[in-house]
Amino acid sequence: MTKLIGLTGGIATGKSVVSDYLRQRGIPVIDADIVTHQVEQFGTPGLSALVDHFGQRILLSDGTLDRQALGHIVFSNPADLKQLVRTIDPFIRSEIFRQLDTYQNAELVVLDAPTLFENGYAHLVDEIVVVYCDPVTQLRRLMKRNKLSIVNATKRIRNQWPLQTKCDLADTIIYNSGTMTTTLTQVDRWLAKETK
């Protein structure tokens, strides 16, 4: 029977590093961020639902989603962020289940979801792995990666559950404040236990 692993962490904690490595090791990964992009593409019911709520201001001139405009709206107002999740989540959930069906013969499948807890996916998985890094490293990485000011980066971090809360609920914690080698060694150790 397939074991479903929930892989999560905070924004810019290095979850994608772990996710990419698991893919390289041949583990099927369903990436909730990629799924979100898929269900928000031009012409999809998901994008139509977003436009119904947030209006044309979230679209670029070619009719595709302006992620920057939407991000600015939802990260400035918690009520709008909740509405975004309520609007798009049914489409995301449906696609995740569709992809899960294609991996029925796999021993392990990973659901890579930054908001595993926040959006109510934790109860779907058999085990939870949290990728952790210290708050200073997280803030620095996010500012650099997304070209954000310290104020905007902090706002985005605060829109997620505290990392410590996620760690308290995890079955396994991968510490990712050090070198890539140290991080991936922890992943190898965890994987060895899961697949023996």
TrEMBL record:
User: From which organism does this entry originate?
Assistant: Lentilactobacillus parakefiri
Q: What is its EC number?
A: 2.7.1.24
What are the protein's UniProt keywords? ATP-binding, Coenzyme A biosynthesis, Cytoplasm, Kinase, Nucleotide-binding, Transferase
The protein depicted here goes by the name Dephospho-CoA kinase
Q: Which reaction does it catalyse?
A: 3'-dephospho-CoA + ATP = ADP + CoA + H(+)
Quote the SUPFAM superfamilies the UniProt record gives: P-loop containing nucleoside triphosphate hydrolases
Tell me the Gene Ontology biological-process terms attached to this UniProt entry. coenzyme A biosynthetic process
Q: Which GO terms describe its cellular component?
A: cytoplasm
Q: What is its main location?
A: cytoplasm
User: Family assignment?
Assistant: Belongs to the CoaE family.
